[in-house]
Amino acid sequence: xxxxxxxxxxxxxxxxxxxxxxxxxxxxxxxxxxxxxxxxxxxxxxxxxxxxxxxxxxxxxxxxxxxxxxxxxxxxxxxxxxxxxxxxxxxxxxxxxxxxxxxxxxxxxxxxxxxxxxxxxxxxx
Length: 125
Description:
By secondary structure, the chain is mostly helical. Helices cover 85% and strands 0% of the residues.
């Protein structure tokens, strides 16, 4: 396997840890804290980096898994942007609605589906 693909795989594992940390903290505290924003932002940076490595390493910009990955990245990016807007409007540590918490969990769950799909594809090759 190409080194750039291995780097992408390693980086996406770190993105998983970062996103999971953010969503767990947010779900438990029912608020957006500095830690939540930090881990969401770090997750986006890691996810983008992993995506770039995988596209370069595979040579494929468009594939079924790529489309699932891009859309899940877009979902997490939307969640991160909405989180920042929520903090701007209501301040740090303000109580979140159940609707927002469910949205964040759904975006993360979809991202995990893309992550698992990628892992299965790697194991099949």
